[in-house]
Amino acid sequence: MSQPLLKIENLHAVVAEDGRVILKGVDLEIGVGEVHAIMGPNGSGKSTLSKVLSGHPAYEVTEGSVTFKGEDLLELEVDARARAGIFLAFQYPVDIPGVSIANFLRTAIQSNTGEEVDIFDFQEDLVERMGLLEMSSEFATRSVNHGFSGGEKKRNEILQLAMLKPSLAVLDETDSGLDIDALQVVSAGVNALHQERPDTSFLLITHYQRILNYIKPQFVHVMVNGRIVRSGGIELAAALEAGGYEEFRETAAGV
Predict the structure, then answer these.
(1) What is the pLDDT of residue 36?
(2) Which residues contact 16 (CB under 8 A, 6 or more apart)?
């Protein structure tokens, strides 16, 4: 049996500022090229998990382990995790006024690879990726997310994913705030990238089934009260859409 790309064991985490417990023993394995989805109600710890994986300083791991490509992920600083191949698409992407998308991406690629990026190759790749996401080439000169609509911000997140080519992409509620047209475009972009790079793994974090109608995970996990309480296939997402989370809240309460 091959080694998983990401292995999370008994992960506990608290809010660094006040010690409030959020994650209460998360176990999860993601193999190379696999697509997983974590679903759960507000406050269940889904977004906290994504931030802990990326090394956000607002959270402190108090117990458990996370290995990525066989190495201790928790020992790595935020930038080292990115260079190792972890990408986080934010639920609420931040604005960076004065920094163009093109300059931001070229700098990020050079930081990840440690090598100078040829400007002509970069521009050719950028234009191609923007076309995939139905983004006008003029967006390359705009400040990162500044004045963008919600849909434009999410497309820009997927553009970053396309350009940085990570091993694991964590999409934290990428469907949040998207209308159906933007959701279809973003999902089509993710699917095309996965087809192009089948070794890339994805972890989708969402409240609702709707994005899973377009991006099909092999594995679905239900997170409630800081734990994954059930795992299954895509049929589990349909059951959640039909019956809600109450059954799983009862399961979590009994743990």
Answers:
(1) 97
(2) 57, 58, 59, 60
